[in-house]
Amino acid sequence: MSQLNTEVLSVGTELLLGHITNTDARDLSELLSGIGINVKYHTVVGDNPERLRACVQIARKRADILITTGGLGPTCDDLTKQVLAEAFGLRLVQDEAELRGLYDYIHNSSHYTENNLSQAMLPEGCTVFHNKWGTAPGCAFRADGKIVLMFPGPPKECVPMFREYGISYLRALSDEQIVSHSVRIFGIGESAVDDIFAEEMNAMVNPTMAPYAKECDCLLQITAKAKSEAEAEAMIRPVAEHVKERLGEWVYGTDVECLEEAVLQLLLERRLTFATAESCTGGEIAKRFTDIPGASSAFVGGAVVYTNGTKARILGLDPDMIEEKGAVSYEVAKALAENVRTLTGADIGIGVTGLAGPDSDGVHEVGTVFVSMAVEGRTYVRELHMGTKRTRSFIRRMSGNHAFDMMRRWLTGLKVEIVI
């Protein structure tokens, strides 16, 4: 199945106008790569039946698996089902189970409209994907040697539906089991990982390895294909161990989504807590951590102290010290971490101060950030220089990654003071 060409066709004029970012294609491609299916094409088309028909005809010629997102709703411009059914010679028929669910939903809604019931019309003979996160069901069918899957456009519906239904549907099409694990890496980039393993990767057939760059970290994905899941796991295990041995301290986890998720697991294991004092990151570290379920067991709280005055009033920093050393300094970062730890009673205090741009402070260049971590008896500070060409979002996210990496290293007994 990994040899089948796959195309993701995203439907929606709002995507072309730039009103909405097409995260569905990105997220589905990542999930597909996790089961060993490589996406060959991404296509975006507006809510126009003629252009959509043309895109479907092109996809039929070059793809074995066609996955659509969007255009399954109740409005007149939601035409994906109609065009796909027509293209493959299928009638749209009413699914009674979905109709009953939609009937109950709209009659209990304060915004009742009958056109919602049209969402129960689905291609004859399809496998229905019930939507627990919205109203429009998805579906899948096989016709003319092609595999077609359709999902609604809203990411909060599309991604969980694909996780629950799409992955198992595609896996069931093959006699072989495809298993994939991701080794997550922070501190060296995709190109460095590729350089380390290039010769091995080029020689591998099954299992395979491939590096992927994320915004501020990267991963090495290991995939194996076998008659059973247990056999595939057994093939992956020695490769994963070899990778972790070669990369050592740069590996922060396997099959975790992000650094903060790995840190949460470590904090829960140690029954420790942390608090944040953020300046240039504007609360992003706290937000990222509290986006994870269960974060309340490890996160005490945080303060966004953007100006010198709030650093002094809220966290008790010495105004004369701030004036003398400057807000962007080793000393201020150190005091932020120590004071927030003391004030909140947390086991770990995190402080961040720096320049996310676009303007300099006249002393430091944009991209200069000090990230600090205070624990009992010691405070660590990293001085980062990320370059003047980086975006504000990159600098803020990378600063957060360093904060989480410092905690990860301290919690696992690794050296915190490193040069990156």
Describe this entry's structure for a reader.
The protein is an alpha/beta fold and 420 residues long. It has 14 helices and 17 strands. It has helices at 13-16, 23-34, 49-62, 80-87, 96-107, 155-171, 190-203, 229-247, 259-270, 284-290, 308-315, 319-325, 330-344, 392-411, and strands at 6-11, 39-45, 65-69, 92-94, 121-123, 127-129, 138-143, 146-151, 177-185, 208-213, 218-226, 251-254, 274-278, 299-304, 348-354, 368-375, 378-385. The strands form four sheets. Strands 2-1-3-8-7-6 form a six-stranded mixed beta sheet, sandwiched between helices. Helix 3 (49-62) crosses helix 4 (80-87). The relative contact order is 0.08.
Beta strands, count? 17
Structural class: alpha/beta
If you average the pLDDT, what whole number results?
92
Helical residue percent? 40-55%
Beta-strand percent range: 15-25%
**Major beta sheet summary:** 6 strands, mixed
Q: Termini separation (Å)?
A: 40 Å
Task: Strand order, main sheet: write it out.
Answer: 2-1-3-8-7-6
Determine Rg (CA atoms, Å).
25 Å
Number of helices: 14
Low-confidence stretches: none
Shape: globular
